[in-house]
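The passage that follows is intended for readers who have already worked through the single-chain material. We present the inputs for a multi-component assembly, then the predicted structure in tokenized form, and finally a short commentary. You are encouraged to pause after the input and sketch how you expect the pieces to fit together before reading on.
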Amino acid sequence: MELLLSIEDLRVYFYRPEGVLKAVDGLSYRLYKGEVLGIVGESGSGKSVSVLSILRLLPANGRIVSGSIIFDGKDILNLSREELRDLRGKDIGIVFQDPMSSLNPVITIGQQVMEPLLWHNLCSRSEAYERAKEMLGLVGIPLPEERMKEYPFQFSGGMRQRVMIALALICRPKLLIADEPTTSLDVTIQAQIIRLLKRMKEEFGMSVILITHNLALTTNFCDRLIIMYAGNMMETGRTKDILYNPSHPYTKSLLDAVPDIEVDKELIPIPGTIPNLIDPPSGCRFHPRCPNTMDICKEEAPPLFDIDTDHYSACWLYRRA
Amino acid sequence: MKNDKNKKKMGRSYWSNIWRKFKRNRLAVFGLVFVVILIFLGIFAPWLAPYPYDEVHYEAVWTPPNRQFLAGTDQLGRDIFSRLLYSLRNAIFVGLGAQAFITFIGLTIGLSAGFYGGTIDNILMRIVDIIYSFPSYLLNIILVLVLGRGYFSIFIAISATGWAGMARLVRGQTLSVKSRDFVEAARASGASNSRIMFRYILPNIIGPVIYAIFSGIPGVMLLESGLSLIGLGVRPPMPSWGLMISEATGQFLYNPYMLLAPAGMLVLTLLSFNFVAFGLRDALSARE
Amino acid sequence: MALYIVKRLGWIIFNLLILSLIAFALIKSVPGSFLELQILLGQAGTTATGLTVSEIDKIRGVETEMMKRWGPTVPLWEQYVTFIKGVVTLNMGPSFRWPTQTIEEIIRKTFPVSFTIAVLAITIAVFIGIPLGVIAALKQNSWIDYLVSALVMIVSAIPNYVMAVFVIFLFSFWIPILPTYGWGHPKNYILPVLAMSFGPIGSIAGYMRTSLLDALKQDYIRTAWAKGGTERYVIFGHAMKNSLIPLVTILGPMISHLILGTVFVEGMFGVPGMGQYFSQAANSRDYPLMMAQTVIFGLILMVMNLIVDIIYFFLDPRIRISRR
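Having made your guess, compare it with the prediction:
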């Protein structure tokens, strides 16, 4: 398979009055063309920050302090503003969490969907209009031509998220980033949006990064998963391997905390709270909450250990003697 | 009872938090220091002024500032420095007095409209809207004519139209607080209406109200000076910055100090109050 | 929308009626009204020297006309009806202070002057204030931002009549190129407009700065960047739209303030506008003129506010569509 995105040792720090917050601290992963990658973690685990870095859309106090991001042969961290702009919206599309606040309330839906095409000078206005109409129909908006004249407040939450997907895909990007695309939606709509993303993936064949805190959403969609905790990767592997054969204590406790309708199991909450990332725990960042803590966990951060084919876990339990 | 204690404690930390943020703003602290000094000067003007405000010195008409007359004298040889102090006293009396009156009426009407809603709200807010749409300065002028020139009339005239804005603000704030959980809880536990209004709603809207009070004071003061400027404010020889400015306009080519002194004092006073108001606004709006 | 405007116009008429009642009641209760009337009529006679024969005749007619309208034998309600009728039919009779002119003539003459000054001042304020605010917001914490913030604070503390003093000062002493007093030449407009535009410049710049900074923090601006927008597209195509709409809401009160402010400022420059005529009418107890002007000022303010609301209605789709 052909490589699309490779991230090496990414570190993103936020400079706050209280101190330096290490939101992402040494993250590396690869994404291949046509692949769907899920990044799973609790809020504050750095999963969103890691993908916002790909577009260099961090808030003003956030800095990428080290690492490299190579997208489609381009070194993102060394691109000029022009080159970066050329990438955003055209080669990489993004869908944000809250579709209400992510769409401009005083600009028509049609205009907002057409803008990526127009801003990148990809086609004429009339052609952009046709393509936007077609794309809105494709994401399941009935009567797209009429609705293009309307404003975001006239759309329901689910419909707005469909609009966001349409404008992220209108330039046929090579990569679609979906940053918690269902979190602010009703449960019934969540599945529809994931199904839509899956259909779009089949239609256009782009790579997808799905950010979520909900493991259940990844099952039928993602090829591969990354489990993140406190700015570090804990475990990575094929979705099936992780869901049915989790190796890291954190992944296991995540799965224990997911309710299952079919099996009458006991829900076990993860003890403790997410660590303060300004002054993170020493060694493995999960050790204060881990049921299997050993002495070494407190002293040294674990590297990734081989579990299986393409399945790695950052846990000292898997150290070969 | 225990609940009340907790509330009070929360209140104290709320204010100390605002005070902490306010202190960080150097301009605001600067303004506050000035405001305190100005109020002090105003209150003690009769003791601090070197001359009575109406004492005429025919031998020293239009004297530029010197050691005897710190800010010079006017066309009747009256000491401008003393007149400035008395003007300050009067401006502070009108500014604080009218604003206190405005706040009292505005709070009463705004709270009742917001709290009771329904017909009371409709009627009160209709009245507010009508007053709001009036050409307020003209009504102020007419009221001063009715009551006769002088500081007391100005005070009444300004209050008569000024309360509408405050009532509107208080009503809006009351509405937003009314539906909050702790008000519902107080209601559920059988608290009386007046108790809910004064112990639960009022403490929670007091921040914006205090900002409105402070930002309103300069407005009142400059209205007072404006009325005196066009000859419809205080009755001479009682001084007012506005009156002093109008007396000086014919003279300013020859005696610019006559104009600059009252204009400067007016601006300094208004700026001080504004700095405090801006500082309050920032301290109240900052979320952490 | 049509229904909304009709409803608002209805309220304007109602509010004007209340206003006229209050103005009438207050003015009628000013102490010494009738005495003043006699004195003023006497004055009118003495100032008549040097007038043409027809004008003297006119002044003689004025006395009887005024007695008919406002004389002590006429019941109050009849006076009020005369007053309202006069306003509606534009036949308000003669003024006390300027007995050779009727009130409607004075208003017809003074209104364009004040209105032009107010419109020029607000136009200048918009064209200077908006760019200043935008630059301050885009260069946050730069020297220009501090300059704008300082300007906002200072001009909001300086009333326009003090600004007028400074402007007159400046142009009399240091750069005596413009007339500081008088009327008749277009140049005479410059200083009053200048003095009146400072305050609005400050408030517009300050408001624009805050509202643009606020807009730039919104999620939809992040979306616009993510779509590959340049500064021009993101700031002028998106953020500016969102921050200009609320600006319209502060324009209404600002215009009201500006028009009313003419009462204090026009006299200082010798501008023959509504404001100066009102303050002179008040000083010489010209009650018919004051009543008429109060109602006219009220009408102007209410219509201005209605216009601003209509503009807002068309600018903000959320209001436009939900009210349709």
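Commentary: The longest helix of chain A spans residues 187-204. The radius of gyration of chain A is 20 Å. How closely did your sketch match?
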